[in-house]
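Morning. Coffee machine broken again, so started the prediction first thing and wrote up yesterday's gels while waiting. Chain of 169 residues, entered below exactly as on the submission form.
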Amino acid sequence: MPRGAFDEEHTPPPNSEAADEENSSAFIVAKAVVGALIGSIPACILWISLGRIGYIASVCGFFMIFGEMYLCSVFTKNEKDMNIETAIVVCIAVTIAMVYLCERAVWSYDLYYALAPECPSMGYCFVHFEKLITGTEISADFDSALFRSYIFAAIGAATSSFRALKFQQ
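Came back before lunch.
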């Protein structure tokens, strides 16, 4: 019976160059994610501030993706293996997560003031958010607001991404 490549006894020796290359690719993407996370912080502050007074603006999505793309490129500027498509995917994923966290923070702040005796702090409301919105039957309202926030973020992000791709060519 011939031995195949997947047999336990036929394990090829590890190729150290391939392992180094894989690690460097993962490290490059990790640097891109860290840059995108740090780049989103100013827009998150703006998002939460505007959301707290009752406004959602696509300008927050624009600033969020712009900051993410800028710092992502700064963190990975010396990396030859980083391409713009990967950077955009990383930035979009970070935007999706950060919009959710920003919207959750805005709603946690509102819950803190609405349920003052039950919520000892805003942090408590943020951590126990799912339980609180299910218990108060406002989860449909949160889902609607979150969907609207994603639409506004997408509008702002699309303009920024389009400009980045146009500039790259």
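The radius of gyration is 21 Å. Going to sketch it on the whiteboard this afternoon.
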